Amino acid sequence: MNPVFFIVLRRMRTPLLLLISAYAIAIAGLVTIPGVDDQGNPWQFDFLHAFYFISYTASTIGFGEVPYPFTPGQRLWVSFSIYLTVLAWLYAFGNILALLQDAGFQRAIALQRFRRQVRRRADPFYLICGYGETGMMVAHLLASYRIGAVVLDKDQDAITTVGMETNLGNVPALAADARDPAQLAEAGLHHPLCLGVVAVTGDDEVNVDVALAALLLNPGLRILCQAQQEVAAVKLPSRHGMCVIDPFNTFGASLALAIHQPCTYRLLRILGSLPGEPFPPMVTPPKGQWILCGYGRFGRAMERHLRSEGVTLAVIENGEPIARPATVMGSGTDTTSLVAADIDTASGIIAGTDSDIANLGILLNARERNPAVFTVLRQNLDLNNPLVAAARPHLVMETSRIVVGQIVVELINPLLRRFLLLARDQSALWAEALIGRLMALDIEATPESFVVSITEQEAPAVHGALAGGRRCGLGHLLRDPMTQDESLPCVALLAEHAGEITLLPEADHALRPGEQLLFAGIPGAARRMQASLLEARALHFAMTGEDLPVSWMTRWLRGGLEARARGTNLRNFHPCPDAGQSARGRRWWRARASAAGACDACSRSSR
């Protein structure tokens, strides 16, 4: 049974019975009491007219005494009926107001509306479990790529925030425990348009439980889980399609890469950052003695990666004593603990506690003692962006942005993830040269990455040209179809065909059917390339510089003029159908060619 209908019946049972009884008593009395008509003859209400009279009288509308003036007995009974029904209605209205304010009833209505919205979804979507800072950024990111979302979160305030986001569109949201398999099913886990699950609740244990439940209930989905690697390894099996994002481990590996190979680190930041972020500057963290403030999960991850780069760490810990050499007990916000950790000669300091204010205090105190120290700040809350920007640390570790950046390459552009993994193994000169090519595009923000697939559905013009035996190179796609002399403001990063990968393919790279190409360029470059991918006329112009006529009749006339200019008899001229001609035009030329004796080129085209 519908839960809303069931709650209404259960809570309104007594008021409804009271109303029915009041109306039955009033109608029965009115039918029983005798009256007289306008001629003085005896007359009584039948049940239909008595019901009609009591209905408008009980609602205080009142049309008067109809159809005849009442007798004193009828008037007395009607007066009693008015008080009886009005009191019954007041009691019923009081229960209706209490029902509307009932938390269980409101939740039942929200659940019913949520089910209806999920069931009626007509576009692909991801199920986001957790709507904190990270979940909010994921929802906005998906919306920017025109991908839908469904949200689950235990906090009702977070669900209310979803409804207030005007730029998200229609995002169904429900306050529920994402670990409950029934709630996951209600949120569309088995919906045919559900693309995957993103577990970013802020609790590693909850995220792992959600990922495991989604894996068991729908193994074909793409699952992303924010959790510490050690926590995930206990419960989650290692399998394809499951992605565990450990922001602490990710940042530690990035910091180690920045120390070892700054150019490669900058390249990964340029291509792996969120869309619209400023072009990151060159960062060169020094080796030597560092100070680490806070030895929790973040601190241990930093130590593990920095040790591999030959960095020695002095730890300042404010909690329980830890069995580790070179450890100073303190907060780091006081000068005493910093001096004890030898801040005056330290090369760098990591403010990695759970408090943004404490981390900012550590940074300011460290700079006061050692202005040249390299600073790394852990930012826990996105709302502290103005304070962090004013402090100007060399590097900022923000969990939400790291997780969302990983989601970009995992969900939105998997080919970019493969490129970033391969780019780590390249030389510093290779990375520096690619950065120079990207900066030559004259952009100030993160370049837009997009993928082109040479298929009949996504690139019909190129696929048709290749199927017809014409050679089409990468340089033809990079040529502006509007001017032909200019190149599109983008760089080809990777080409992949049947498992074969080519990094930074050259302009003479021959395109092949089924090949996938990864580009990075200014916003709008992908849209300008669409003309060469979809329109044979634009592709022909990019390949030859020749602008083909639009209609086949114009092509025939143009071909005839060119034949006369060459001294060729028009009757023996057989222009070959090209890829941009309509099917009807191609059939016409084939019939003419076979009747008049086609040239070799026309015969090949006819076949």
SSE blueprint and pairings:
Elements lengths: L2 H9 L1 H20 L2 E2 L5 E2 L3 H12 L13 H29 L2 H17 L5 E5 L3 H12 L3 E6 L2 H9 L8 E3 L5 H6 L7 E6 L4 H14 L4 E5 L2 H7 L6 E4 L1 H14 L1 H11 L16 E5 L3 H11 L4 E6 L9 E3 L5 H6 L7 E4 L4 H14 L4 E6 L5 H7 L3 E4 H14 L1 H10 L4 H12 L8 E6 L6 H8 L6 H4 L12 E8 L2 E4 L12 E6 L3 H10 L1 H9 L7 H14 L17 H14 L3 H7 L1
Give a structural overview:
The protein is of the alpha/beta class. It folds into five domains: 3-100, Helix Hairpins (Orthogonal Bundle), CATH 1.10.287.70; 105-245, NAD(P)-binding Rossmann-like Domain (Rossmann fold, 3-Layer(aba) Sandwich); 286-393, Rossmann fold; 447-544, 2-Layer Sandwich (Alpha-Beta Plaits); 567-606, no CATH class. It is built from 26 helices and 18 strands. A six-stranded parallel sheet has the order 5-4-3-6-7-8, sandwiched between helices. Helix 2 (13-32) packs across helix 3 and helix 11 (247-260) crosses helix 17 (399-412). The chain is flat. Residues 568-582 and 595-607 have low confidence and may be disordered.
What is the CATH C level class of the largest domain, in words?
Alpha Beta
CATH architect. name of the largest domain: 3-Layer(aba) Sandwich
What summary fits the major beta sheet? Answer: 6 strands, parallel
Question: Uncertain segments of ≥5 residues (pLDDT<50)?
Answer: 568-582, 595-607
CATH topology of the largest domain: Rossmann fold
Taking all Cα atoms into account, the compactness measure Rg is 37 Å
Question: DSSP helix count?
Answer: 26
Query: How many domains in all?
Result: 5
Query: β content, as a range?
Result: 5-15%
Q: CATH homologous superfamily of the largest domain?
A: NAD(P)-binding Rossmann-like Domain
- What's the pLDDT, averaged over the residues? 85
Strand arrangement in the largest pleated sheet:
5-4-3-6-7-8
Shape: flat
Question: What's the N-to-C terminus distance?
Answer: 66 Å
Content-based structural category: alpha/beta
The counted number of beta strands is 18
Q: Considering DSSP H and I runs of 4 or more, what fraction of the residues is helical?
A: 40-55%
